Amino acid sequence: RVVSMKDCSQDSRNAILLTLLYVIQAIPLGLSDSTIPLLLKAKVGYVGVAMFAISGYPYSLKLLWSPIVDSVFFSKFGRRKSWIVPVQLLSGCLMLWLSFSIEDFLESDVVPVGTLAAIFTLFTFLSATQDIAVDGWGLEMFPVEDRHTAAACQTVGLRIGFFLSYTVFLFLNSPHFCNTFLRTIPSDTPILSLGVYIFIAGVTYIFLSVLLIFKREKPLTHTNIMDFDDTDDLTPLNVYKRIFALLKLPNLRKLIFVLLTNRVGVITAHLFTLHLASRMPQHVFAEISVVSFILEMLVMWFMNKKIQGSPLSLYLSGYSLMLVWALMSILAAWVITPEYAGEEIVGGGVFVLSGFLLGFRVLAMIMFLCLGSFFTSISDSSIGGTYLTLVNTVTNLGGTWPQAGFFFFFSFLIYLSLFLFSFFLHSLCFLFFSNLVLDNYTGSSRLVIVELL
Asked: What is the pLDDT of residue 418?
């Protein structure tokens, strides 16, 4: 493909916009997933935190309404902007209101966990809806051969958003950190309160929404909806039918099975290491987050140049490294545990476990980027939001369900059994996944292009 300077400039602007959309989408998710539970834990305990965790459910259920987002829109305003702009404006206004109330909620004698859970459930629902539209728009912004750029924007944007809402906020919300590194005159108050952070996020949401009004989308043509006769056939019912048709394809079912099972061994090893790491000094986790973020961005910049055309090959390489890393981490944790015997882990143990946690985060980012690039390359842009929602939802489930199993079995599995368990499951998934190859991409048949050898 001959690329003009104008095309390069347009692609760069689209990449920046797409990254920003993913950044602001991740801000409320970072708050509900990490920051708010951490602040609640001291006042309401694990029961309250578990109740608040309900706020994350809409993100796992977004496949239910994604066909509506793909098919209901105002053509003159823009297929994707019809959802992104109003959803962001509503989220921004809700954030502005919450910014004046959140600290009163958290500082009250009886924290209204139910009210907070309801508010952040609405935030998650809005972010999930925005994610459907943004995913679909990302497929339409770039040519087929450059769709890996959309996956890179997603990876970078979500990582930055979570980093801002957790690590950066907690640093600036800590009087000790502010007095040590940012102030000349000590103070008992932090530089950034939760209310101010949410207020800034709300203003950013509204400002970006206003700018999006003037962003032109590509007109909806027969090329965009190739598998439908015309825009009148692009209805929620027809999109639901398309998804059911996809789920009947044997190759897609095999892919779903792989995505649901391929991370079992990794999760087991990672959570086991994290369980031991929870006995390290707390400031170590903040330092790990900063170092991890820097490493991930550097690896991301390097990987984006290599990933085009071979996302699965790179994924399998990362998978192989993750297998080795998982086995080494369990061996190291097995050796470290008797030495400290329930005490806080310090010295060399901190160094070893920190290294393994960093390795897990960087390798997980590589695998996430490669899978994202693969998914964008096989997705049908006529139902892009729904297609990506389907495969991403399955992938997320594949990473979450083993966690419950791990903690259930942890009480009676000895370390050697856990080691063998991880080795067997992870090796089995690797062998199964290694049979997946990226076949040809054809414009007329885009339902599935994964084929088992």
From this structure: 55
**452: three-class secondary structure by DSSP:** strand
Gyration radius of the chain over CA positions:
23
d(CA 114, CA 120): 10
Distance CA 153, CA 141 (A): 12
- Residue 307 contacts residue 148 (beta carbons within 8 Å): yes
User: Among candidates 376, 366, 369, which has minimal Cα distance to 441?
Assistant: 376
Which pair of structure tokens corresponds to residue 219?
A: 């007109």
- The model's pLDDT over 364-381, given as tens digits with 9 standing for 90+, comes to 888 888 888 888 888 878
Give me the long-range contacts of 431-439 (CB less than 8 A, separation at least 24): 432/258, 432/261, 432/262, 433/258, 433/262, 433/316, 433/319, 434/316, 436/255, 436/258, 436/312, 437/312, 438/310, 438/311, 438/312, 438/374, 438/377, 438/378
Q: Which of 202, 201, 200, 178 is nearest to 191 (CA)?
A: 178
Exposure string over 237-276, b if 16+ CB within 10 A, otherwise e: ebbbebbeebeeeeebebbbebbbbbbbbbbbbbbbbbeb
pLDDT tens digits along 390-444: 988 888 887 776 665 555 555 444 444 555 555 565 556 555 555 544 333 333 3
Q: What is the pLDDT of residues 20-34, one digit of tens each?
A: 999 999 999 999 988
